[in-house]
Design brief:
The structure is a single chain. It contains 2 helices and 2 strands; from the N terminus they run βαβα. By secondary structure, it is of the alpha+beta class. It has one domain. The protein has a two-stranded parallel sheet with strand order 1-2.
């Protein structure tokens, strides 16, 4: 059985700032070692935990 290389990313998040979080995590993901098979991000990495989910929701067809 071949090895599976997994990168777990736990970064600081900028609360309710989708654009800033996408930029931050994009930079972090770009630094993942070549050959990594799977990158795991926090569940709500784009917004942080929020009670304002409806206002921050994104369309799956056109994420913006």
């Amino acid at each position: 059985m071949p090895d599976l290389s997994i990168a777990l990313i736990q970064n600081r998040q900028i609360w309710e700032d989708i654009d800033a979080n996408l930029k931050l995590f994009s930079t972090t993901v770009d630094g993942v070692a070549p050959g990594t098979d799977l990158v795991v991000l926090p569940e709500m990495f784009t917004t942080g935990f929020t009670m304002n989910a409806a206002a921050l929701a994104q369309d799956m067809e056109d994420p913006g």
